[in-house]
Amino acid sequence: MATHCVKLSKFFKITGIRHQSKQNRGKSFASSAPTSEARQLEALTVLLHGTCSQKCRRALHARLAVAGAIRDTSIVMGLVERELCAFGSDNFTFSPVIKACTAVSCLRLGRELHCRVLRTGHGGNVGVQTALLDMYAKAGQIDVSRRVFDGIVQRDLISWNAMVSGYSLNGCFLEAIEELKEMQQGGMRLNASTLVGIIGMCGGFEAKDVGSSLHAVAMKYGAIADESLTSAFISMYSAFDDLSSSRLVFDLQPVKDLVSFNSMIAAYMQHCNWKEAFEVFRLMQCAGLGPNLVTVVSVLPSCNDFFGINQGESVHGMIIKFGLAEQVSVASALVSMYSKLGKLDSAVLLFCYFTEKNNLMWNSMISGYLVNNQWSMALDSFCKMQIEGVTPDATAIINAISGCRHTKDLHMAKSIHAYAVRSRFESNQSVMNALLAMYADCGDISTSYTLFQKMEVQMLISWNTMISGFAEIGDSEASLMLFCQMCHDEVQFDLVTLISVISSLSGSEDATVGESVHSLAIKSGCNSDVSLTNALISMYTNCGIVEAGQQLFDSCCFANTITYNALMSGYRKNNVSEKILPLFYQMVKNDVKPNLVTLLNLLPVCQSQLQGKSIHSYAVRNFTRLETPLFTSAMGMYSRFNNIEYCSKIFSLVGERNIILWNTFLSACVQCKQADMVVDYFKHMLFINVKPDAVTILALISACSQLGDADFAACVTAVILQRGFSAKILVLNALIDMHSRCGSISFARELFDSSAEKDSVTWGAMINAYSMHGNGEAALDLFSTMIDSGVDPDDITFVSVLSACSHSGLVEQGRTLFKSLQADYGITPRMEHYACMVDLLGRTGHLDEAYDIVRSMPSRPSDNLLESLLGACRFHGNSKIGESVGKLLIESEHGKSRSYVMLSNIYASAGKWSDCEELRSDMEAKGLRKDVGVSLIGMT
């Protein structure tokens, strides 16, 4: 017996692999003998044959199981056969052998043993039966476990615990609770092993009352002091979002082990309570406990989400101190931490230092590149991991797909898709959903939809991805079709679905559909969510129903920044700009913090430069980083008030100038009539190799039009032709207008004739060119050619051709065109059209007809229109109509001195001196003075 024990003792030293290092683990039992399984089995057989004592034999099995040496199915089968043949079968033999089958998940061999148990008459032994029911439960056959359990005549605590644990392991929560009740009714005393599995299930089933009851039961039976229960209760209360109870359980534990500390840290981390998690980590250090893998992997995210680089480096130093830096899970967490803190170089250094890289390490590095917007590097790493022989898993593929979404590299995207298909990831829902989103973001929505149709299981996230994808490109019809199909397939929509559908509705024709979706949201109980309210406000205002958007805003109890921005944007889109500033004041009063979008809504509607400066100053004071849209909007605001100096200052302060900033500044110069600056800055652009685009060229053309220099216009045209911008229809239209303004009407016509593609703007530009040069007949001929070509004129084209009729005195043609404006083309006349007709009729002496048009206008005539008619009345000596028109002018709140002077001259020409004197007195009473005449003779 002593000899056998010595042999076993020596053997146990070989098999203690759980406590050996990674290098020495290769010398453990599994590989210390010759590598072939036959020789391993031979060594075990020698020991088993040399062991005559059943006690020693059971000790051997137990030690092997604990050491993890018997994990190979073939070895277990060999052991079973030899042991059963050598020693026969008894109650002491079957239990460890069945447990060995459970350890290697060999259900087939376990069933054979079960049959042998029954044949040899050992089926009534409670130990054997308990081992069997545990084996079936861990194999997922809980019904078989129950039948075995029902066959146990004398159940002990171990068998009861095995059955409860089996139910817990298979997710049978209610059955586990019923079993627990039966135990109590049978007078069985519960212990920690009984409760720990059920406690772990309470959080998943949101059974807070059951969890509290189990806590009371644990206290009643004195099991609460068990360390495993403490950790289970901490996790359970954390799942109930009751961190105070978790902390109370933790604090009441007299002696806290590492598992308890890890559970409390994990609970805080799950709820993003970074500070509290780190405080528990410090308590653990004060208690003299060193961290393990679970500890550091749990704590590290608090550094990148709350504390920062200094704390992260401190934890890194502690990891090195405790010898955990070589663990791949810890190294991966460190790479992730440094990446999220923006220290990508440190992350790459750690990654390169680690020699044995597995999927976890590669995934952390690829994610680090994605976090730092290094999309190309992420894709390169995805390729390199395959070159180094590491097969990407689903996480790596999803990360690579995410990189393609940002680079918009459709070729690379299709390559990754092909790899996913070859690697049989088509059944992975996360990968397929990522592919759907990627193709949609890359502008290939048709491929995304084809892929969606081929999916075997279309999850809710798949439907949402497709609906939002079509919404992004403005295809509301496809979004609604998918939504209806989704409802028809009985897939329950969620908040994301409704927001995606609502965001796709933007036209007035969609208002009815939008109201129906709104009703559905109310019916489903989703209308209380502020995100949905924001989407509805945007939808109603985009559809032109501002009142509905206002009502939704007023009824919103928790309006946030996005809510205010949605209504402001709606006001801007519907030309209700006067309501934006009062809404902003309300926003500030309610302590809702403005963001960049808020300021972008405010700057274009500033009523004074002082207001604009105040908003600009607020952005400088409160935003750590100013974005390009804010710079461009601020320059646009200052240019409206002709402040080119401030525009120049803003432009000079920007470090990295993209083409958008250049174009905005050039446009500001054009608006401020600083054509020379546009030319100078355009030259500077070319000097520093900033590539101009079509918007840049349009600004340059506008500046050239302001200069009116035909020679310079020819130079600009040469540059445009050289750089290939003449193919763009917008540029061509601007060139036609530029040359006509510079006096080169013939060259403008050459450009017009050489254009293969002409839109309504092209025709209108040429017609306007003839109008400016007083050639009404040519303008009318070109207008007729335009109609014959099948191009429908727009309202601007009609302004040009009516103006041409006015300059050339073509009354009949003008009348005909004005009547066809609405009758034939459905265009509602604007103020410009009425002004052209009044000017035409006034010039030609048809004052009664002109005055009839003024009186029939749906809105008040503009001052320029009335002044034009008043001047015509004076020219033709019609004091009667002139007096009526003059009164309309001086009654205006914006009455000007020249209107009084013109009416006074009409009274004087008609000999109405008393009226003339009364008018001058009224003019003096209002403080109006006649503009002083200025002579240009002799001025340089």
TrEMBL record:
PPR repeats lie at residues 156-190, 257-291, 358-392, 560-594, 658-692, 759-793. The keyword Transit peptide applies. The keyword Transferase does not apply. InterPro entries: E_motif (IPR046848), PPR_At4g14850-like_plant (IPR046960), PPR_rpt (IPR002885), TPR-like_helical_dom_sf (IPR011990). Keywords: Repeat, Transit peptide. Coiled coil: none annotated. Pfam families: E_motif (PF20431), PPR (PF01535), PPR_2 (PF13041). NCBIfam families: PPR (TIGR00756). This is Pentatricopeptide repeat-containing protein. It comes from Urochloa decumbens.
